[in-house]
Write a structure and sequence with these properties.
heterodimer, A: 266 residues, alpha/beta, 8-stranded mixed beta sheet, 8 strands, 16% strand, globular, B: 131 residues, two-stranded antiparallel sheet, 4 strands, binds adenosine-5'-diphosphate, binds magnesium ion
Chain lengths: 266, 131
């Protein structure tokens, strides 16, 4: 039985889909059999981030309604054959699927794949309930902003209430320079508040947008990027490796040296 | 003066940074979010607890504190109710005259044997006698 992990956040736009695409690809690069499931019915995106949008024929809804077999709906990645996508329906709403159906669908996938990564929609209504229905683990994505952290906290509570005991935190879009001048919460600040184990930290990186434009997850790019390395590290940790956290803090220039001196001595 | 200037140049020196501010705001709002208590419920709890406690003691209304706190995902209701005095009807020692002090002259004298201070033999004897 493969691991079923839901990627969720409460708030929209914090990086769930980006995370799912990159971790999925990174795990596939480690030769794991991976299926990424788009559970954002009606607002499908994961196909775009993986550059697979032109090959989507059937969706999860078609499988559930008996229009096609599960194998037919799965889109295989050409770059990595051991990564496949189960697309969400774009012309349906979140209410066209229920949690019991999701559990069935995912139980079938977990028989074949090492990892089933479920990309959750924003919110905590039906779409979220569907996404977490079959999961036994969760990755909670947040940014270091007040509203995202608040929503993440709400989601962590709901995950616990739904008996998903194993959750890891990803803090996305951190901007070390802003943290250094005390205009952004630090990784420690956010982890202390949310009080779940930290799985990884991803810096705010323009390369993420470039990779989205190309439909090519950052972890595939030949030249290493900060965000790409961060996602690779997360995949390794998920896979049981012990990997140090990236040192994202800006290197001490003279100004911050002076600042530190005064901060310590006062 | 110098400190103020430094604070301007290096925001890390003061706690009024937007980072500290957002942390404080978050901690407060999360304590409420996590408890699932509505402000109305907290207010009526506060009123009822005060009613009960006030039957027994007079409270210092100005120094009272009643808040939700949160550490590591556990919410607690923390009430700080400074007691001014116990209500007279609940004094544990009642009765006439007892509140007045007996003059020292009326009490029996207590003697002390300076040479026997610290005499352990004596104490152990005493203990044996009592047991
Ligand atoms: N680390 C990052 N650096 C820069 N931009 C990012 C980063 N992570 C996500 N983004 C951008 O934020 C937007 C929302 O990301 P997405 O993964 O779609 O969020 P969600 O799935 O949570 O709604 C996208 O435009 C994406 O390119
Ligand atoms: Mg998304």
């Amino acid at each position: 039985m493969g691991r079923v992990i839901v990627i969720t956040s409460g708030k929209g736009g914090v990086g769930k889909t980006t995370t799912t695409a990159n971790i999925g690809m990174a795990l596939a690069q480690r030769n794991r059999k991976v299926v990424v499931v788009d559970a954002d019915f009606g607002l499908r995106n994961l196909d775009l981030l993986l550059g697979l949008e032109n090959r989507v024929v059937y969706t999860a809804v078609d499988v559930l309604s008996g229009q096609c077999r599960l194998e037919q709906a799965l889109v295989k990645d050409k770059r990595r054959g051991n990564l496949v996508l189960l697309p969400a329906a774009q012309n349906r709403t979140k209410d066209s699927v229920n949690p019991a159906q999701m559990r069935q669908l995912i139980a079938a996938l977990a028989k074949v794949f090492d990892y089933v990564l479920v990309d959750s929609p924003a919110g905590i209504e039906m779409g979220f309930q569907n996404a977490i229905a079959a999961a036994t683990e969760a990755i909670v994505v947040t940014t270091p902003e007040i509203s995202a952290v608040r929503d993440a906290d709400r989601v962590i509570g709901l995950l616990e209430a739904n008996n998903i005991k194993k959750s890891g935190l990803i803090i996305n879009r951190i901007r070390p320079k802003m943290v250094a001048v005390n205009d952004m919460m630090s990784v420690d600040d956010v982890t202390e508040i949310l009080a779940i184990p930290l799985l990884g930290v991803v810096p705010d990186d323009e390369k993420v947008i470039v990779s989205t434009n190309k439909g090519e997850p950052l972890v595939l790019s030949g030249t290493p990027t900060q965000a790409g390395t961060a996602f690779e590290n997360i995949a390794r940790r998920l896979d049981g490796e012990k990997v140090e956290f990236l040192d994202l803090m800006v290197k001490d220039d003279l100004l911050s040296k002076i600042k530190n001196f005064f901060t310590k001595s006062i | 003066m110098l400190i103020e200037l430094l604070e301007k140049i290096f925001p890390a020196l003061n706690d009024r940074s937007s980072r500290q501010e957002v942390k404080n705001r978050l901690k407060l709002i999360l304590a409420h979010d996590r408890s699932d208590l509505t402000p109305q419920m907290i207010e009526s709890m506060r009123r009822e607890i005060l009613e009960v406690v006030s039957k027994y003691v007079d409270l210092d209304a100005d120094a009272m504190d009643f808040a939700l706190e949160n550490t590591s995902r556990v919410t607690s209701l923390v009430a700080n109710l400074p007691i001014l005095r116990v209500k007279p009807e609940f004094y544990t020692v009642k009765g006439k005259g007892m509140s007045k002090e007996t003059p020292v002259e009326d009490l029996p004298e207590i003697s002390i044997d300076e040479s026997a201070i610290g005499d352990l033999q004596g104490t152990s004897d005493l203990r044996n006698e009592n047991s």
